[in-house]
Write a structure and sequence with these properties.
The protein has 364 residues and is α/β, with parallel strands linked by helices. The chain folds into 2 domains: 193 residues, Isopropylmalate Dehydrogenase; 143 residues, Isopropylmalate Dehydrogenase (3-Layer(aba) Sandwich). Helices cover 42% and strands 16% of the residues. A 10-stranded mixed beta sheet has the order 2-1-3-12-11-4-5-10-8-9, with helices on both faces. A two-stranded antiparallel ribbon has the order 6-7. The longest helix is centred in the middle third of the chain and has 20 residues. The structure holds adenosine-5'-triphosphate.
Amino acid sequence: MKSTFDIAVFDGDGIGPEIMKPTIDLLERVAQQNQFQLRFDVVPAGAGHFSRTGESLPSRSLDVARDADAILLSAMGLPAVRYPDGTEISPQIELRKELDLFAGVRPVTLAPGQATPLKLPPDRRIDFVLVRESTEGLFWSQGKGEVTQDEARETLVITRETSEKLFRFAFNLAQRRRQSGRGRGHVTCVDKANVFRAFAFFRGLFDAEADRHSELTADHVYVDAMTLWMVQKPWLLDVLVTENMFGDILSDLGAALMGGLGIAPSADIGENHAVFQPCHGSAPDIAGQGTANPIAMILSAAMMLEWLGQTHDAPKVEQAGESLRQAVESAMASGQALTRDLGGEATTEQAGAAVAKLLDGVAA
Ligand code: ATP
Protein backbone atom coordinates (compact mmCIF):
# COMPACT_ATOMS: atom_id res chain seq x y z
CA MET A 1 0.00 0.00 0.00
CA LYS A 2 1.28 3.47 -0.91
CA SER A 3 2.50 5.27 2.19
CA THR A 4 4.37 8.32 0.83
CA PHE A 5 2.49 11.08 -0.94
CA ASP A 6 3.88 14.09 -2.81
CA ILE A 7 1.98 17.28 -2.18
CA ALA A 8 2.45 20.42 -4.30
CA VAL A 9 1.91 23.48 -2.09
CA PHE A 10 0.90 26.91 -3.40
CA ASP A 11 0.97 29.27 -0.45
CA GLY A 12 0.01 32.21 -2.65
CA ASP A 13 -0.86 35.77 -1.73
CA GLY A 14 -2.19 37.84 1.17
CA ILE A 15 -3.04 35.61 4.14
CA GLY A 16 -2.09 32.52 2.09
CA PRO A 17 1.30 31.79 3.70
CA GLU A 18 -0.10 32.58 7.19
CA ILE A 19 -2.85 29.96 6.98
CA MET A 20 -0.68 27.43 5.16
CA LYS A 21 1.90 27.25 7.95
CA PRO A 22 -0.32 25.77 10.71
CA THR A 23 -1.95 23.53 8.09
CA ILE A 24 1.37 21.94 7.08
CA ASP A 25 2.30 21.53 10.76
CA LEU A 26 -0.99 19.69 11.41
CA LEU A 27 -0.61 17.53 8.32
CA GLU A 28 2.87 16.49 9.42
CA ARG A 29 1.54 15.69 12.88
CA VAL A 30 -1.43 13.63 11.70
CA ALA A 31 0.72 11.78 9.13
CA GLN A 32 3.18 10.81 11.83
CA GLN A 33 0.36 9.65 14.12
CA ASN A 34 -1.04 7.46 11.34
CA GLN A 35 2.30 6.19 9.98
CA PHE A 36 2.42 7.62 6.49
CA GLN A 37 4.58 10.32 4.91
CA LEU A 38 3.75 13.56 3.16
CA ARG A 39 6.48 15.24 1.08
CA PHE A 40 5.74 18.92 0.50
CA ASP A 41 7.08 20.91 -2.45
CA VAL A 42 6.27 24.62 -2.04
CA VAL A 43 6.03 26.29 -5.45
CA PRO A 44 5.47 29.92 -6.50
CA ALA A 45 2.42 31.36 -8.31
CA GLY A 46 -0.04 34.20 -7.86
CA ALA A 47 -0.27 37.96 -7.92
CA GLY A 48 2.84 38.66 -5.82
CA HIS A 49 4.90 36.39 -8.05
CA PHE A 50 3.39 38.04 -11.15
CA SER A 51 4.33 41.53 -9.98
CA ARG A 52 7.92 40.40 -9.35
CA THR A 53 8.44 38.28 -12.46
CA GLY A 54 5.62 38.91 -14.97
CA GLU A 55 4.56 35.25 -14.64
CA SER A 56 1.48 34.17 -12.67
CA LEU A 57 1.84 30.40 -12.97
CA PRO A 58 5.41 29.37 -13.85
CA SER A 59 5.65 26.21 -15.94
CA ARG A 60 7.81 24.51 -13.28
CA SER A 61 5.06 25.10 -10.69
CA LEU A 62 2.50 23.62 -13.06
CA ASP A 63 4.78 20.61 -13.69
CA VAL A 64 5.21 20.01 -9.93
CA ALA A 65 1.42 20.21 -9.54
CA ARG A 66 0.88 17.79 -12.40
CA ASP A 67 3.34 15.25 -10.94
CA ALA A 68 2.08 15.51 -7.35
CA ASP A 69 -0.39 13.13 -5.71
CA ALA A 70 -2.43 16.15 -4.57
CA ILE A 71 -2.26 19.93 -4.61
CA LEU A 72 -2.77 22.14 -1.58
CA LEU A 73 -3.49 25.78 -2.37
CA SER A 74 -4.22 28.62 0.02
CA ALA A 75 -5.37 31.73 -1.84
CA MET A 76 -4.13 33.68 -4.84
CA GLY A 77 -4.84 37.12 -6.26
CA LEU A 78 -4.56 40.72 -5.04
CA PRO A 79 -7.04 43.40 -6.11
CA ALA A 80 -4.30 45.87 -7.04
CA VAL A 81 -2.34 43.46 -9.25
CA ARG A 82 -4.05 42.79 -12.58
CA TYR A 83 -3.43 41.64 -16.13
CA PRO A 84 -3.40 44.40 -18.76
CA ASP A 85 -7.09 43.64 -19.61
CA GLY A 86 -8.07 44.52 -16.02
CA THR A 87 -8.87 40.97 -14.81
CA GLU A 88 -7.35 39.61 -11.58
CA ILE A 89 -4.48 37.15 -11.42
CA SER A 90 -6.09 33.79 -10.67
CA PRO A 91 -3.81 30.82 -11.36
CA GLN A 92 -6.25 28.64 -9.39
CA ILE A 93 -8.70 29.02 -12.31
CA GLU A 94 -5.91 28.20 -14.79
CA LEU A 95 -5.06 25.09 -12.73
CA ARG A 96 -8.68 23.94 -12.87
CA LYS A 97 -8.64 24.20 -16.65
CA GLU A 98 -5.11 22.79 -17.15
CA LEU A 99 -5.71 19.76 -14.93
CA ASP A 100 -9.36 19.32 -15.94
CA LEU A 101 -10.66 19.67 -12.40
CA PHE A 102 -14.32 19.63 -13.35
CA ALA A 103 -15.88 18.95 -9.92
CA GLY A 104 -15.73 21.74 -7.34
CA VAL A 105 -16.73 20.15 -4.05
CA ARG A 106 -18.02 22.55 -1.39
CA PRO A 107 -19.24 20.83 1.78
CA VAL A 108 -21.66 22.84 3.92
CA THR A 109 -21.78 21.46 7.44
CA LEU A 110 -22.71 22.76 10.86
CA ALA A 111 -21.09 21.01 13.78
CA PRO A 112 -22.76 21.26 17.21
CA GLY A 113 -22.07 24.67 18.72
CA GLN A 114 -20.94 26.18 15.43
CA ALA A 115 -22.31 29.72 14.98
CA THR A 116 -24.72 30.23 12.09
CA PRO A 117 -26.93 33.15 11.11
CA LEU A 118 -29.81 30.65 10.77
CA LYS A 119 -32.33 29.94 13.52
CA LEU A 120 -32.32 26.18 13.19
CA PRO A 121 -34.85 23.96 14.96
CA PRO A 122 -32.81 22.10 17.64
CA ASP A 123 -33.21 18.67 16.02
CA ARG A 124 -31.96 19.83 12.60
CA ARG A 125 -28.42 19.32 11.30
CA ILE A 126 -26.88 20.75 8.17
CA ASP A 127 -24.64 18.45 6.17
CA PHE A 128 -24.81 18.81 2.41
CA VAL A 129 -22.36 19.15 -0.47
CA LEU A 130 -22.47 21.54 -3.38
CA VAL A 131 -20.75 20.21 -6.51
CA ARG A 132 -19.84 23.11 -8.78
CA GLU A 133 -18.72 22.41 -12.35
CA SER A 134 -15.37 24.20 -12.48
CA THR A 135 -13.98 24.24 -16.04
CA GLU A 136 -16.72 25.62 -18.27
CA GLY A 137 -20.19 27.21 -17.85
CA LEU A 138 -19.98 31.00 -17.83
CA PHE A 139 -16.35 30.89 -16.69
CA TRP A 140 -15.46 29.35 -20.07
CA SER A 141 -15.63 32.92 -21.29
CA GLN A 142 -12.99 34.22 -18.91
CA GLY A 143 -10.63 36.46 -20.88
CA LYS A 144 -12.67 35.89 -24.08
CA GLY A 145 -15.53 38.33 -23.56
CA GLU A 146 -16.20 40.84 -26.33
CA VAL A 147 -16.68 44.43 -25.32
CA THR A 148 -17.38 47.31 -27.70
CA GLN A 149 -18.40 50.86 -26.97
CA ASP A 150 -22.05 49.84 -26.79
CA GLU A 151 -22.20 46.16 -25.97
CA ALA A 152 -20.58 43.40 -23.93
CA ARG A 153 -20.95 39.66 -24.53
CA GLU A 154 -19.78 36.58 -22.64
CA THR A 155 -20.55 33.00 -23.68
CA LEU A 156 -21.73 30.15 -21.45
CA VAL A 157 -20.59 26.70 -22.54
CA ILE A 158 -21.98 23.37 -21.33
CA THR A 159 -20.51 20.23 -22.92
CA ARG A 160 -21.85 16.70 -22.89
CA GLU A 161 -18.45 15.25 -21.98
CA THR A 162 -17.87 17.40 -18.89
CA SER A 163 -21.50 17.27 -17.75
CA GLU A 164 -21.55 13.48 -17.93
CA LYS A 165 -18.36 13.27 -15.81
CA LEU A 166 -19.77 15.84 -13.40
CA PHE A 167 -23.07 14.01 -12.89
CA ARG A 168 -21.30 10.66 -12.51
CA PHE A 169 -19.15 12.23 -9.82
CA ALA A 170 -22.18 13.74 -8.03
CA PHE A 171 -24.12 10.47 -7.97
CA ASN A 172 -21.07 8.52 -6.80
CA LEU A 173 -20.59 11.05 -4.02
CA ALA A 174 -24.24 10.68 -2.97
CA GLN A 175 -23.75 6.91 -2.93
CA ARG A 176 -20.66 7.17 -0.68
CA ARG A 177 -22.41 9.62 1.64
CA ARG A 178 -25.38 7.29 1.95
CA GLN A 179 -23.10 4.32 2.72
CA SER A 180 -21.31 6.29 5.44
CA GLY A 181 -24.62 7.47 6.96
CA ARG A 182 -23.98 11.15 6.15
CA GLY A 183 -26.63 11.55 3.45
CA ARG A 184 -29.89 10.04 2.27
CA GLY A 185 -28.66 9.36 -1.28
CA HIS A 186 -30.33 12.28 -3.00
CA VAL A 187 -28.96 14.48 -5.82
CA THR A 188 -30.47 17.83 -6.85
CA CYS A 189 -29.68 19.45 -10.19
CA VAL A 190 -29.61 23.24 -9.76
CA ASP A 191 -30.23 25.02 -13.08
CA LYS A 192 -32.31 27.55 -14.94
CA ALA A 193 -33.84 25.17 -17.46
CA ASN A 194 -37.05 27.19 -17.64
CA VAL A 195 -35.24 30.06 -19.36
CA PHE A 196 -32.09 28.81 -21.10
CA ARG A 197 -31.73 25.99 -23.63
CA ALA A 198 -28.21 25.32 -22.36
CA PHE A 199 -29.67 24.43 -18.96
CA ALA A 200 -32.38 22.24 -20.50
CA PHE A 201 -29.48 20.34 -22.14
CA PHE A 202 -27.66 20.20 -18.77
CA ARG A 203 -30.82 18.87 -17.08
CA GLY A 204 -31.36 16.24 -19.79
CA LEU A 205 -27.85 14.83 -19.17
CA PHE A 206 -28.50 14.89 -15.41
CA ASP A 207 -31.72 12.88 -15.89
CA ALA A 208 -29.86 10.30 -17.99
CA GLU A 209 -27.34 9.77 -15.16
CA ALA A 210 -30.14 9.66 -12.56
CA ASP A 211 -31.76 6.81 -14.52
CA ARG A 212 -28.59 4.73 -13.94
CA HIS A 213 -28.96 4.94 -10.13
CA SER A 214 -32.18 3.28 -9.05
CA GLU A 215 -30.84 3.14 -5.46
CA LEU A 216 -30.59 6.96 -5.28
CA THR A 217 -33.21 9.69 -5.68
CA ALA A 218 -32.96 12.87 -7.75
CA ASP A 219 -34.79 16.12 -8.42
CA HIS A 220 -34.28 19.59 -9.97
CA VAL A 221 -34.52 23.04 -8.44
CA TYR A 222 -34.10 26.39 -10.22
CA VAL A 223 -31.11 28.32 -8.93
CA ASP A 224 -33.17 31.23 -7.60
CA ALA A 225 -35.42 28.85 -5.65
CA MET A 226 -32.31 27.07 -4.32
CA THR A 227 -31.17 30.25 -2.56
CA LEU A 228 -34.46 30.12 -0.60
CA TRP A 229 -34.12 26.42 0.16
CA MET A 230 -30.56 26.83 1.41
CA VAL A 231 -31.76 29.39 3.94
CA GLN A 232 -35.21 28.00 4.80
CA LYS A 233 -34.74 24.21 4.69
CA PRO A 234 -31.05 23.38 4.40
CA TRP A 235 -31.47 20.13 6.35
CA LEU A 236 -33.38 18.65 3.38
CA LEU A 237 -30.34 18.93 1.08
CA ASP A 238 -27.81 16.19 0.38
CA VAL A 239 -25.80 16.58 -2.88
CA LEU A 240 -26.41 19.60 -5.15
CA VAL A 241 -24.83 19.78 -8.59
CA THR A 242 -24.67 22.93 -10.70
CA GLU A 243 -22.99 25.06 -13.36
CA ASN A 244 -19.80 27.02 -12.62
CA MET A 245 -21.19 30.56 -12.10
CA PHE A 246 -24.23 29.41 -10.14
CA GLY A 247 -21.92 27.27 -8.02
CA ASP A 248 -19.58 30.20 -7.42
CA ILE A 249 -22.45 32.23 -5.97
CA LEU A 250 -24.15 29.41 -4.05
CA SER A 251 -20.88 28.35 -2.43
CA ASP A 252 -20.53 31.78 -0.78
CA LEU A 253 -24.10 31.44 0.49
CA GLY A 254 -23.14 28.01 1.82
CA ALA A 255 -20.10 29.53 3.52
CA ALA A 256 -22.34 32.16 5.15
CA LEU A 257 -24.61 29.41 6.55
CA MET A 258 -21.53 27.83 8.12
CA GLY A 259 -20.67 31.07 9.90
CA GLY A 260 -18.32 32.68 7.39
CA LEU A 261 -15.74 32.28 4.65
CA GLY A 262 -13.02 31.54 7.19
CA ILE A 263 -14.35 28.03 7.86
CA ALA A 264 -15.56 26.91 4.42
CA PRO A 265 -13.29 24.29 2.77
CA SER A 266 -13.33 23.10 -0.82
CA ALA A 267 -11.79 20.75 -3.35
CA ASP A 268 -11.54 20.84 -7.13
CA ILE A 269 -11.39 17.28 -8.34
CA GLY A 270 -10.76 15.72 -11.75
CA GLU A 271 -10.13 12.17 -12.90
CA ASN A 272 -6.35 12.36 -12.30
CA HIS A 273 -5.66 15.41 -10.13
CA ALA A 274 -7.19 17.38 -7.29
CA VAL A 275 -6.64 20.79 -5.68
CA PHE A 276 -7.71 21.48 -2.10
CA GLN A 277 -8.21 25.08 -1.06
CA PRO A 278 -10.43 27.24 1.17
CA CYS A 279 -13.45 28.97 -0.42
CA HIS A 280 -12.14 32.38 0.58
CA GLY A 281 -9.70 34.64 -1.23
CA SER A 282 -6.39 36.13 -0.10
CA ALA A 283 -8.06 38.64 2.30
CA PRO A 284 -5.47 41.41 1.76
CA ASP A 285 -7.33 43.63 4.27
CA ILE A 286 -6.12 41.45 7.16
CA ALA A 287 -2.87 40.04 5.72
CA GLY A 288 0.23 40.28 7.88
CA GLN A 289 -1.68 40.70 11.15
CA GLY A 290 -1.58 37.05 12.24
CA THR A 291 -5.35 37.05 12.75
CA ALA A 292 -6.55 35.14 9.68
CA ASN A 293 -8.73 32.14 10.33
CA PRO A 294 -6.85 28.97 9.26
CA ILE A 295 -9.84 26.61 9.72
CA ALA A 296 -11.06 26.57 6.08
CA MET A 297 -7.51 25.76 4.98
CA ILE A 298 -7.13 23.02 7.60
CA LEU A 299 -10.51 21.47 6.69
CA SER A 300 -9.47 21.54 3.01
CA ALA A 301 -6.32 19.63 4.01
CA ALA A 302 -8.54 17.09 5.84
CA MET A 303 -10.54 16.67 2.62
CA MET A 304 -7.24 16.08 0.81
CA LEU A 305 -6.34 13.23 3.15
CA GLU A 306 -9.79 11.68 2.76
CA TRP A 307 -9.51 11.89 -1.04
CA LEU A 308 -5.94 10.49 -1.06
CA GLY A 309 -7.09 7.62 1.15
CA GLN A 310 -10.07 6.84 -1.08
CA THR A 311 -8.21 7.08 -4.40
CA HIS A 312 -5.19 5.04 -3.19
CA ASP A 313 -7.17 2.55 -1.14
CA ALA A 314 -5.27 3.67 1.97
CA PRO A 315 -7.73 3.56 4.91
CA LYS A 316 -5.25 5.00 7.42
CA VAL A 317 -4.84 8.14 5.29
CA GLU A 318 -8.61 8.50 5.03
CA GLN A 319 -8.84 7.97 8.79
CA ALA A 320 -6.24 10.70 9.33
CA GLY A 321 -8.46 13.11 7.39
CA GLU A 322 -11.41 12.17 9.59
CA SER A 323 -9.29 12.68 12.76
CA LEU A 324 -8.19 16.11 11.58
CA ARG A 325 -11.79 17.13 10.84
CA GLN A 326 -12.94 15.91 14.25
CA ALA A 327 -10.12 17.78 15.98
CA VAL A 328 -11.17 20.97 14.18
CA GLU A 329 -14.81 20.49 15.23
CA SER A 330 -13.82 19.92 18.87
CA ALA A 331 -11.45 22.90 18.86
CA MET A 332 -14.21 25.11 17.46
CA ALA A 333 -16.76 23.82 19.96
CA SER A 334 -14.31 24.53 22.83
CA GLY A 335 -14.04 28.16 21.67
CA GLN A 336 -10.23 27.94 21.59
CA ALA A 337 -10.01 28.04 17.80
CA LEU A 338 -12.30 31.02 17.29
CA THR A 339 -10.51 33.80 15.45
CA ARG A 340 -11.70 37.39 15.18
CA ASP A 341 -13.97 36.78 12.14
CA LEU A 342 -15.94 34.31 14.30
CA GLY A 343 -16.18 36.63 17.27
CA GLY A 344 -13.23 35.10 19.15
CA GLU A 345 -9.75 36.34 20.00
CA ALA A 346 -7.51 33.49 18.85
CA THR A 347 -4.65 34.34 16.52
CA THR A 348 -3.95 32.16 13.49
CA GLU A 349 -1.19 30.42 15.43
CA GLN A 350 -3.36 29.86 18.52
CA ALA A 351 -6.21 28.43 16.42
CA GLY A 352 -3.74 25.97 14.83
CA ALA A 353 -2.31 25.07 18.24
CA ALA A 354 -5.83 24.39 19.62
CA VAL A 355 -6.47 21.94 16.80
CA ALA A 356 -3.07 20.29 17.37
CA LYS A 357 -3.85 19.77 21.05
CA LEU A 358 -7.14 18.08 20.23
CA LEU A 359 -5.55 16.06 17.46
CA ASP A 360 -3.20 14.56 20.02
CA GLY A 361 -6.31 13.79 22.10
CA VAL A 362 -8.10 12.16 19.13
CA ALA A 363 -5.03 10.05 18.35
CA ALA A 364 -4.44 8.99 21.98
P1 ATP B 1 -11.87 36.13 -4.08
O1 ATP B 1 -12.59 36.92 -5.14
O2 ATP B 1 -10.42 35.93 -4.38
O3 ATP B 1 -12.60 34.89 -3.65
P2 ATP B 1 -13.02 37.92 -2.21
O4 ATP B 1 -13.06 39.24 -2.88
O5 ATP B 1 -14.27 37.11 -2.14
O6 ATP B 1 -11.84 37.05 -2.80
P3 ATP B 1 -11.80 37.40 0.32
O7 ATP B 1 -10.35 37.56 0.15
O8 ATP B 1 -12.32 36.02 0.41
O9 ATP B 1 -12.54 38.24 -0.79
O10 ATP B 1 -12.26 38.22 1.60
C1 ATP B 1 -13.60 38.63 1.83
C2 ATP B 1 -13.73 39.11 3.26
O11 ATP B 1 -13.66 37.95 4.13
C3 ATP B 1 -12.60 40.05 3.69
O12 ATP B 1 -13.10 41.02 4.56
C4 ATP B 1 -11.65 39.12 4.42
O13 ATP B 1 -10.90 39.77 5.41
C5 ATP B 1 -12.57 38.06 5.02
N1 ATP B 1 -11.87 36.77 5.08
C6 ATP B 1 -11.65 35.93 4.05
N2 ATP B 1 -10.96 34.87 4.45
C7 ATP B 1 -10.73 35.02 5.78
C8 ATP B 1 -10.05 34.25 6.77
N3 ATP B 1 -9.47 33.08 6.48
N4 ATP B 1 -10.01 34.73 8.04
C9 ATP B 1 -10.61 35.88 8.35
N5 ATP B 1 -11.26 36.66 7.47
C10 ATP B 1 -11.32 36.24 6.19
